[in-house]
Amino acid sequence: MAATAARDAVSRPAQPVAADAPAQGRARADTKRAPTDADSAVGQRIRGHRLAAGMPLSELSARIGVSNPQMHRYECGLTRVAASRLIAIAAALGVSVEMLTSSVPETGHAEEAEVDLLLRAFSAIGQPERRNALIALARSMAAAETGSPG
């Protein structure tokens, strides 16, 4: 096996390394695979929801099957999160993928983010009759949950 590796190394010409080449393992900022500001925002949301749930990084890492350093890189926005991994993270945190990817400002707790989404949608309704209907529906649903009249 060592002879094969040595033969392959001899048969391949050495590739020149530019002086400004990035360190091995790090993507250049101008490459398509480099993390973006959106990747960083997703990582911040993951961390916020994990902390709001009181979940240690090691527990989330174990639940989704990655190392603690890899999970840290996701949260810091140093590594892009694949869609399948994002789905697993959302499930482990008990939130929707949209909660991790939406442009809703992170408030520190998943329920607060949902309230913000609801408030934005409600504010977009211009007709008072429709607003009142939505309020009546919410009260009815809350009453059904708590068992008390609306």
Q: End-to-end distance, in Å?
A: 75 Å
* Second CATH tier, the architecture of the largest domain: Orthogonal Bundle
- The fourth-level CATH homologous superfamily of the largest domain is lambda repressor-like DNA-binding domains
List the domain count as a whole number.
2
Which structural class is indicated by helix and strand composition? mainly alpha
Mean pLDDT metric: 77
CATH class of the largest domain: Mainly Alpha
**Shape field:** elongated
As a percent range, the share of strand residues is under 5%
Helical content class: 55-70%
The largest sheet, given as strand count, sense and whether it forms a barrel, is: none
What CATH calls the topology of the largest domain is 434 Repressor (Amino-terminal Domain)
The helix count comes to 8
* Count of individual beta strands: 0
Radius of gyration, in Å, reads 24 Å
Helix and strand sequence: HHHHHHHH
Stretches with pLDDT under 50, minimum 5 residues:
1-28
Polypeptide structure, described:
The N terminus is likely disordered. The chain contains eight helices and no strands. Helix 2 crosses helix 4 and helix 3 crosses helix 4. The longest helix is centred in the C-terminal third of the chain and has 19 residues. The termini are far apart. It is mainly alpha-helical and 150 residues long. The protein folds into two domains: 76 residues, lambda repressor-like DNA-binding domains (434 Repressor (Amino-terminal Domain), Orthogonal Bundle), CATH 1.10.260; 42 residues.
